[in-house]
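Notes from the pairing session

We agreed to fold both candidates in a single pass and log them together. This is the raw record for the first candidate, unedited. Please don't reformat it; downstream parsing expects exactly this layout.

Candidate A
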Amino acid sequence: MRDDERIISRAVAHALRWASRTGAGCEADMTAIEKGELPYDPGDPAEVVEQLARLAEPGLREPGLRGAPPRRSGGAAALGADWLTSAWNQNTATHEESPATAAIEAAAARWLRDLLGLPARSDVGFVTDATMATFTALAAARSALLADEGWDLDNDGLAGAPRIAVLAAEAPSGLAGALRYLGLGRAIPVGTDGQGRMRASALATALDRLAGRPAIVCLRAGHPATGAFDPFPEAIIWARSYGAWVHVDGAAGLWSAASPALRHVVEGSERADSWTFGADEMLGVPYECHVAAVARPEALRAAMGGARGYLVEPLPVAADPDPAEMVPEFSRRARGVPVWAALRALGRLGVAELVERRVEHAQSLAAALSTVPGAEAVNDVVSTSVCVAFGTDARTRGVAAGARAHWAQVRLNGRVALRFTTHAGADPAAALATLRQAVRDVSDRSA
């Protein structure tokens, strides 16, 4: 066996053993790794892989493939494709540099547009996370809005440019980071209801106060805590009447469009100008795979393209645009390849069933909360999020201390709540058991 085969075989053996592991703990003390000294002499690469696995595994969360049978989640196919992507090591910037991976990403983009009902001419780019997806989509918005105002952003920069207003119900980390990177400042908050949904009447009032400034309206297909969907038809009518760019933060909620039974919750969102959503959250694709889609390709390519620098502009070799014209990076791995594999493994029916199953799991978990002493469901379960509180904030935080492996603390309507999401790798039964035990522990300490 060649050295490279020996090294890869050991890595595969460790990965397979880890993926099938149950009951994995997560130690906080990683001193052996953090304080380790860089050796002077070279080491055996195979032994380095062995040492890496031995040192890291105690500090890893439970394997992300759990929570749904691999053939029904797409995660196993995506993981295999991700390994192939690393082995191929292609710079998927242009069709000329890597015809195969660029074509695979183009196919995955076409499938996504079709599944989610997005305009056929939309450009689709694969990026790392929600922040970069939002950055990519809103960079296109910034480019289009300033061009409409007669401002040459490429030559004149932002100094002295017409100031763009961004309206949103809230500004989660992905949106806040993107706005900061784009130099657009803080979002203007728009009033919401008790589930965090934007009120269309509040949006109309906020737009009226802008007095003609160029604007971006950010809507959500799934509130970060409650999973609630903004009123797309009404909100988009108001935004269009003003002339605003409409962006939809899809997270996991936009996947509802792939299900005939759930499509109604995102009705109207297809009329937006841009969308972002995660492939990792729903499909089980390995981390660092979010998607930005823009209905106006010329705006996205104006914002992201033109990064060739010293490289000679090649003749077109494919009907689809080069990947680097739709994302911030030029040197990039083919993040769309695992998406292609997950979609190919699931098929249209499998994606719909996967989305429906995740929502059903959330609804079943919410119903089961009635068996947990003191638990109060605090959201209407319309997507994959379940929120629960336990009377006072202090008691809820006490339960959170024992349930943090599955439940995250969030703030909703001024009170602390715990949130669980039935995304890829999530285990609702384990989440319920953890919550029950945490409640017993708090009660025992109070006795």
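Candidate B (folded immediately after A)
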Amino acid sequence: MIRASFALSATLSLLAVACGPTSPAMTTGDDTETSDGTATTGTTDETTTTDPSTAGPTTVTTIEPTTGEPTTLEPTTLTTGGLVCGDGVVEGGEDCDDGNLDDTDACTSACTVATCGDGLVQVGVEGCDDGNGDNNDECAQCQPAACGDGFVGPGETCDDGNLVDGDGCAANCIVEFCGDGALQANEECDDGNFEDTDACTNACKLAVCGDGIVQTGARDMTLAEALRLRLSAIETHIASLQHIAAALRAALRSEPDQADIRRLCTVTRLTTEERKAVIERFYERVSEGVPIDDTWKRQMMQASAPTLPEVPTPEQLDAWIELAEIVQNEEFIKKMRDAAAETWNSGLDLAAHQRVSQEANAAARELIDRGVAPTDAAARPVVERMAAGLAAAMSKPDTPAWRATLHEKSQGHDPRASRYWELVAILKGQPPQSGLNEEWHWLNAAVAHHLAPT
């Protein structure tokens, strides 16, 4: 019922809603002949140079140091003072000459040995090369900066070269301290605050009778209660370590790549409670200034709060990363807030809206199972009933103008709204199209077709 309401609110609230260095012999324009006998032919867009002493032109390939994208230069031969870089012969001031002008191998197109910090990315050796010796930026020792690499990079306050909690530098590369909410080896508890009168003291010790600290508004814990609290803290810590282990296993299935590093950094950065907080902040921001029913909002938070299993799959880790990016996107938050305002400021009857949602989704499911397309005439009655029901639930008259509004909303749908629920399904171990997404897409297409202006 909860997701049905959101899906249809999304339906109608979402309905409501290069070239490198040029040789001195290279020219452009008409065909010419250079002083060394090299024939050059080209236009303002293309230049090809051939040297009589070589078998043919050589292709120059570089990798853009910040994006990692390969760039292929036009065929050419680089010459300096009579020496030919790329002819396979090491001579003069050349450090190397491997017979090509490929900037992504061990010998650059300038016939110098490729090194970390030269601004050229060596394929298979370097993951990045930003041309500097700063290991505290996004490229450390020519590998993308990552928590656990031993260098304090962007967003980190420490990095001791491992992903282990309890050693002073947490697995998310943040300095550990009593009150950070993460249980360390020398702590009995850590409730993430500096309140000395609750169940966990400022010294990260369990509050017990006789410790000299009065627990405000609560009786002293029994030994059994203290042990249960300790067990809960340990189980939470174990779950966090299991998620990190899952990310490591995924990375070690083959040679780790950028996606593996991204998963690992993300899963070590947030605890389960912090992941829930990301979703809660999203709904809080969407509802700013909008009279959204608090019960409905809490239900939506509970329905979509991501809880990774003890051993998440790579797909689930990727789903969480994508979901977190969606709900923190400023443009998406604004769109959802505008859609929510349009829906809730109209005096929405939530119970009536939910009934319409359930009935429309049930009807859509039945027609989908029968193989009926949303453009089929059999879909029109479903659209008609839904349009009338939504108008009543939102205290609006069911007029041609109202139906034109619904059609307009169906055309302006943000695909991230439905993708949100697909990702929630993946996190819960369900197929991406589980729940109401298929019905949602069907209804959206039916509205777009049957309410189109004639």
